[in-house]
Amino acid sequence: MSENHFDLIVIGAGPGGYVAAIRAAQLGMKVACVDATRGKGTGKLALGGTCLNVGCIPSKALLDSSRQFHNLTHMFAAHGISADNPKIDVATMIARKDKIVSQFNGGVAQLFKANKVTAIHGHATLHKDRKVTVKDFDGKQTAYTATNVILASGSVPIELPFAKFDGKHVVDNVGALDFDAVPRRLGVIGAGVIGLELGSVWKRLGAEVTILEALPDFLAAADADIAKIALREFKKQGLDIQLGAKVTAVEVRKKEVHVRYTDAKGEQAIVVDKLLVSVGRRAYTEGLLAEDCGVRLTERGMIEVDEHCHTGVDGVWAIGDCVRGPMLAHKASEEGIAVAERIAGLPGHVDFNTIPWVIYTEPEIAWVGRTEKQCKDEGIPCRAGTFPFAAIGRAVAMNETAGMVKIVAHAETDRILGMHLCGPNVSELVHEGVLAMEFRGSAEDLARICHAHPTLSEAVHEAALAVDKRAIHKAN
Ligand code: FAD
Ligand code: AMP
Q1: Could you say which architecture CATH assigns to the domain 355-467?
Q2: Which of 198, 280, 308, 454 could bond 176 through an S-S bridge, CB–CB 3.0 to 4.6 Å?
């Protein structure tokens, strides 16, 4: 076989693509992974995709820095700790974030090396019969062939036609992760995960933040009780969240951004210094598919796949943000592993019912499975148990008492159908629900498990007891 032939070529080195490449190499395949991302400042191939370069990891780095600053300026006094004149050095904070990103870029490169995955830099196009051409960073074009190809090209931000990204005043996630100073006034269009997380970062550092959301309900995908608590807490923090506010026009004038929107009261306007447009993301397939490759796109521009991530073209698969399903890094990775295993003849599988969702705000929001409303809409009889963090000793000791845990269980079988959380460290606690659901557990199962005291996980235990109206530390 020619050295340009691989058992598997993966296009895209995000959490879908790079994980698929490593798993396939573990299973004995000769694998190449192509990516077009250049590192900030280096211009060299930066593996890790959106998640590592401009998504999950840098946003969490800034959320952590801003949380430390917020605690110093707002929370430490209750513990008797004070500091004179605390300041934030944005350049240092951004440099720390960039260092974390480049550390992990190198980490993925090391993993490729250890697993003998060939990393190829450049933009790839899939042609008929699994021929892949790559135009590299020097403009040179090379042709490769593969027995299997996985498309893992990810997603890009949706641009509003009247609010074009200029990288300076009207920005996407990339711009909002790289401001060189705290904007005095930040506008955010869209109260989704990205808008809330990045809005929180700059609010904690001192910006006046206004979030405009077209829908009348806050976090419509979350459990209604959880969304209500979260909205109350965000408002307490000073985030100005306007619901039912549909942005209609944006204009940059003299370094200011004029934003017009309509709400129940009629035409409204705000003026901000920076505007983050976070109205969702779309599959990225530019230049990916040659006309003869046979892969089809859906009406919404996603790569069409069946439940096994197969495109219908022999040996061609697609995973992650460029296909249907939630745009989450761990969903992309699970699909990557499942497809690599299917190619190897193993029974790879992703359970879409147990994919956890997390919003890394303060308090954090997390959930897995169905909400009570979804159960009702689907005619599934259910009952729910809740428990507030305000009654949890550890949460009180931490001075982080906002939020609660809610467990939704089948009214007849007691099987856990969903877990919904808002509060401290719930990004970790939600996995107790994921595990219980994956093992087809009941609320009774969780209620009978001994949880350490004093821990935040006692809220999960008590919520499970509350499903049967027998929580100990609250009136049922
Ligand atoms: P991507 O990570 O988008 O990777 C695709 C890669 O393919 C890119 O590097 C791209 O350059 C490359 N590529 C595309 N086309 C070609 C081509 N033709 N040739 C060569 N290379 C190509 N998810 C979470 O689960 N948790 C979070 O906390 C979280 N936070 C986020 C925060 C922000 C600000 C953003 C923007 C996203 C966040 N996400 C989060 C979503 C997460 O980043 C995505 O779900 C995830 O990156 C999808 O992985 P992927 O492998 O499908 O695609
Ligand atoms: P997500 O898909 O989680 O990133 O969230 C994006 C949010 O942006 C959704 O809640 C949309 O309702 C919201 N949105 C989309 N277009 C507009 C608009 N023109 N004005 C205000 N909000 C919008």
Answers
A1: 2-Layer Sandwich (3.30)
A2: 198
| Ligand 2 lined by 213 (C-beta under 6 Å) | yes
- From the options 3.30.2130.10, 3.40.640.10, 2.40.30.170, 3.50.50.60, give the CATH code of 5-157+282-350: 3.50.50.60
**From 212, 279, 281, mutation site for ligand 2 pocket: most ligand atoms within 8 A of C-beta:** 279
* Residue 288 burial (CB count, 10 A): 21
Q: Max Cα separation, the chain?
A: 72
CA atoms within 13 A on the CB side of 130: 21
Q: How many angstroms is it from 360 CA to the middle of ligand 1?
A: 17
| Whether residue 431 lies in the annotated active site | no
Q: Say which ligand is closest to the CA of 178.
A: 1
The residue-averaged pLDDT of 334-339 equals: 98
**pLDDT tens-digit readout, 156-190:** 999 999 999 999 999 999 999 999 999 999 999 99
Q: Which of 164, 210, 211, 213 to mutate to test the pocket of ligand 2 (most atoms within 8 A of CB)?
A: 213
Task: Report the pLDDT value the prediction gives residue 2, as an integer from 0 to 100.
Answer: 83
Per-residue pLDDT band for 404 (boundaries 50, 70, 90) equals very high
Cα 55 to averaged position of ligand 1 atoms, centre (Å): 7
CB atoms inside a 10 Å sphere around CB 36? 20
Contact present, 1 and 23 (Cβ < 8 Å): no
Q: What's residue 1's pLDDT?
A: 64
How do residues 302-318 score in pLDDT, each as one tens digit? 999 999 999 999 999 99
> How far is ligand 1, taken at its centre, from the CA of residue 20, in Å?
14
Q: Return the exposure string of 406-445: e unless at least 16 CB atoms fall within 10 Å of the residue's CB, then b.
A: bbbbbeeebbbbbbbbbbbbbbebbbbbbebbeeebbbee
Which of the listed residues 153, 286, 319, 364 should we mutate to test ligand 1's pocket, taking the one with most ligand atoms within 8 A of CB?
A: 153
Decide: 152 in ligand 1 pocket, CB within 6 A: yes
Q: In angstroms, what is the span from residue 152 Cα to ligand 2's centroid?
A: 25
What is the CATH number assigned to the segment(s) 170-279? 3.50.50.60
The pLDDT confidence band at residue 131, using thresholds 50, 70 and 90, is very high
Task: Kindly report, residue by residue over 96-109, the tens digit of the pLDDT.
Answer: 999 999 999 999 99
CB of 278 sitting under 6 A from ligand 1: no
* Measured distance CA(375)–CA(369) in Å, rounded: 10
Q: What is this structure's pTM?
A: 0.97
